[in-house]
Amino acid sequence: MVVLRHISVAFSAAMAAVGTALFIALNIFYKRRVWSPESDYYTFREEEEERSEKQVLVLGLDGAGKSSVLQGLSGAGSRKGCRPTRGFNFISLHTPACQLDFLEIGGGEDLRMYWVDYLRRTHILVYVVDSSDRGRLPQAKDELHRLLKADTDLPVVVLGNKQDKPDAVSVPELREALSLSSVADQRKLFLLASQSGSDGLSRTCSLQKFQDLLLTLV
Length: 218
Known about the structure:
Elements: H1 2-31, E1 33-35, E2 42-44, E3 53-59, H2 66-74, E4 88-94, E5 99-105, H3 109-112, E6 124-130, H4 137-150, E7 156-161, H5 171-177, E8 189-193, H6 207-217
Parallel strand pairs: 3-5, 3-6, 6-7, 7-8
Antiparallel strand pairs: 1-2, 4-5
């Protein structure tokens, strides 16, 4: 059983690594794919004014609602019964200032140990927490602080998700449970409320407000 578990962990990590490599390759491919008006086919050349691209890494325990947040950002709305991500998800959000590439890595136990490997290419970390899962808040705190120690300069936005649930902790309670006050003065760190509604974002944290905050941090 131990051998099978190690094989499963290695396989999951390999799939996540392959997925990230594919994500980067596709970005490069489409960035260089430019329409040539002199021909009826696509040519490959660098654009004269290349759009600035910033990567936003989206992490959190399995079931926190990371995929729902991405669906809200993409305009697709959140799906009910969305299964936890086993590998990765990504979307690109185009703004006048830059292109925000959101990369979500699954939050299962077999993938969390590899989270820090993705911080090197990241401009912003978005950490999603299930506010209604009180029993896992200590675990969410431990994983968050492990990431904070791995990169002391990376801007961080913590989303207290599922605030619409009746048993969700309040934002002040969440700040205390995650021990954010102990690190808030040492880096750019923000705590916002979100919910598992149709757009994945609550009135407290509107889509535009969330985007504007990210753009100020990149």
